[in-house]
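Quick board copy: two proteins, each given as sequence then tokens.
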Amino acid sequence: MSDAIAVFNAGSTSLKFGAYALDTQRSLSLLCRGSIDDMQGNPHFVINDATGRPLDSHSWHEGTTVDHKTAMHFVITWFETNLGGTKIVAAGHRIVLGGTRFEAPVMIDSAVLEYLQSLTAMEPSHQPFNVRGAKAFAEAFPGLPQVACFDSSFHRTMPEVAQTYALPKEVRDAGVRHWGYHGISYDYISRQIPKFAPGARRVIAAHLGGGASMCAMLDGRSVETSMGFAGVSGLPMATRSGDVPPDALFYLMRLKMFDDASLEKMLYEQAGLLGLSGSSGDMHVLQDRRDPSAILAIECFVHAMTKYAGAYAAVLGGLDAFVFTAGIGEHSIPVRAALCRRLGSLGVRLDDEANASGGPRISTSDSPVSVWVIPTNEELMIAQHTLALIQPSAT
């Protein structure tokens, strides 16, 4: 019987998961990963091995609803039935917001869940469902330890001025502050950078996927990041607006084009690359089109990154390395090229051939700023933090 850690990322209608085996030296290796999608009407389960080879699939009858507790139980049962005597000994969960109470991963109990549930009004697009997944696991497997890993925790090293908005004290005391997200990914990248660029102290990392952000790191610690209070600010994203002036939003509400609920829906689900292009929030789709709206969407995305990169280089006092990661960052040759060309004044010199081949280094050998493509691994980061808490001597 071998031990393993399960990793979960619970969404509104989906559950992403993975399983990591503990070897005799207590290190972790991926066994498999997969998802259950369309849980509210057409649920289907798919799972692949560590190389991406399909292992199994399952579909429920159309019209079936699968809740998170049922989904968790199905996944754990599959693990322990199909992975050759594997026993799940703990679960790690991605939770986007840890609030002021949690600046590092934490063992989950009822008090922790109650506090995390209280934060759902701050971040309504992910937090409620992340917490629901952890609650569901506790109900399905009450004897197994669980760990919460927070996307906001990595950014608690930002200086106070970077975490503070210019608002009255009573508003700030209500929790309005610059939280920052994608921290699990940036945590992983911060640990990888020394392997690629050992002397790089001042680093900008760009986590570019359906959700997108940038982070300025000094000696591996976050000092600034583009995503702010919740998940909508900063860079334009697949369907999220990125930065929009607050006075423009007041104007739209005065025109009665939106109420608070419809305005939030527009900013989160109908804006960003989708809103700009009018057709798609998928960067891969937009790159294959040459119509003016698709071109505008990509150019706005690159322009926003250029502004943040310049600001972050100033905050850091210079720049030693730039890292692209996540779906767009790891796979979009044109986006990487467009941004690197705009960062020439900061010392970036793009190697077009290396960029076309995916790196890992995509800058020239004489570039004052080295540029890298480093795949992120949030699942592994969660599994490592989980292991560190359930077996402190193992790390």
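And the next:
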Amino acid sequence: MSHDQNFKNLILDYPRQALAFFAAEEAADRLPGAEIVPVRQEQLKDRLGDRFRELDVPLLVQWPDGRREALLFVLEEESDPRRFSIHRLVHYCLDLGELYETDRVVPVVIFLRGQAPRRELVFGTERHAYLRFNFIACELGTIAYERFRDSGNIVARLNLPNMRYAPGRKLDAYAQAVSGLANLEDDPKKQLKYIDFIDTYGDLDENERASYKREYPQEAKIMMSFSERFIEQGRLEGRQEGRQEGRLEGQAMILLRQLQLKFGNVPEAVRRRIEHADPQTLLAWSERVLTAAGIEQVIGD
């Protein structure tokens, strides 16, 4: 799974905590009493191949009592700062503002590695600035992990391995991320999902894993329990899949995997349609995945 998809899942699973961490200067004191609604992105694409449209996660923050005007947050993850385009971000924010008829748009860029190459864009001349644009830059690698080591914000805790730490503190950052997941998330499915997130960005080698087990036995035990649940879940799914016919089962599994890689979680209703589809229909749907902007465009009539 790509970094973009990893962070998109994280933001959509924990929108309130994501805004409180990634956009603290705008969101920290605004979120109590607010409703946070993910905004569909597909309708904003001019072309199905517009890659940058898929990287952004817009969240609409509304206050039901009307005490504040709605805010639209646009979050984008960049694993390589050299790919970042402030012009692209301006374009997207203007599109969103026009679509929702608001000027209250907060752009946020999460830099997984490195720092923002450019923080402001000004259109104008030596006489006047006609358009001035900047954004919130969350540069994970510049944040001291000690600041959030014991945080009650699960998004901050999961990102401890992405923060700055002294060479001898890598295992502690990893362990505190695992501990945070265990203490702050009760849903077994999300525990399994985000232990993989921690493992991906912790990136321990074999020697580090051995040291981790010795120095952090409690956290290592937590990971083992997650792994055992994951293995058992895989066995159960394997038994269920084994009852389906071979070739048709293979086509269905490939299509499901394609949908998961491109769009994330696949709704149960969609899974049922795929499992009961005939071979020709499965083939047609698999071809649509290449250009579809959403699951509905894949399995629609």
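Board note added afterward: The CA atoms of residues 159 and 234 lie 27 Å apart.
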